[in-house]
Known about the structure:
This protein is an alpha+beta fold. It contains 13 helices and 15 strands. It is globular.
Amino acid sequence: MNNVYITRVSRFLPNKPIGNDDMESKLGVINGQESKARRIVLRNNEIKTRYYAIDDNGDLTHNNAELAKEAVELLCDEAFKTNQIELLSCGTTSPDQMLPSHAAMVHGLLKNGNMEINSSTGACCSSMNALKYGYLAVKAGQVANAVCTGSERFSTWLKSDLFEHEISHLISLEERPILAFNKEFLRWMLSDGAGAFLLENEPKGKAPMKIEWMEGFSYAFELEACMYAGGDKLENGEIKPWSEYSSDAWADKSLFAIKQDVKLLSENILVKGVDSLKKAIQKHGVKPDEINYYLPHVSSYYFKERLYEEMINQGVVIPWDNWFMNLDRVGNIGAASIYIMLEELVNSGKLKKGDKILLSVPESARFLYHYALLTVC
């Protein structure tokens, strides 16, 4: 088995940063009324700026595949060109279409020759699954290098156009035309962007990071869906998929909007997160205070102190001073967040040889968690 190193990192954030007061002008106002939920959600998540693939005229500037392609190209230069990539592994929550796969569309834009591709689906952990596919392929000697990406274009799913038909339908039924909180909540949480890693079987570059191990844990066997799209959640907790509704209902119920069961999220995301963290580090004999940089992907700073409190409750505490986060500056970019967080840390100049970095990614879709431990070489 080969050792596997992250030798290059990149990120691509589209257009200029968007402040809180400009969000609604970008995404659109629903039913002609300013959102009452927006300020509440923003006060809790503490995000100050985020990025949308939308220009000043409200037109889309990039699709998801284009964002990922930009990040991949930023990894490359004269010393490592796109046609040298042996494996492309891409993860996203928000692919541009159901078929072809996301990685196929990114490869189509790169036009860099024949190679293996892999698409990982799901929510935030899809990019960690993409990373693990690349990691195992390089480790097993199937390829000498792999490029892995995480990317999202959520803005398409958040624009007011997606919800206007539902509001019109409610008005026609003489019901109150108010968008349910489980749909509006994520409008003020999510952002666009992409990140990419180059994995190689040799420690090349200025500060290569060896991937020591990767672990994943799913709690779907005991918990129902919490974040979902392309269906509706029934009273019994089951998801009824879009394919079992009439085409009229797709718009009437905003079935393709991304939704969050906020109550289920708050009850479980931290408890299961720390439980899985404990399992991962105990399995590999890692002590919490040995981790120099802890990179937790959280959807909101609302969870930050609560996560620390849960660590205390379960007896696995990573010191505050070792946490590294950038949510307030770039927003919650779903599957891309952990890539963009590591890219910022690498380029901060803080890292030194021997530092241990723990990547921690939760996925609330049905409570999935992924971890990776890196050592700076």
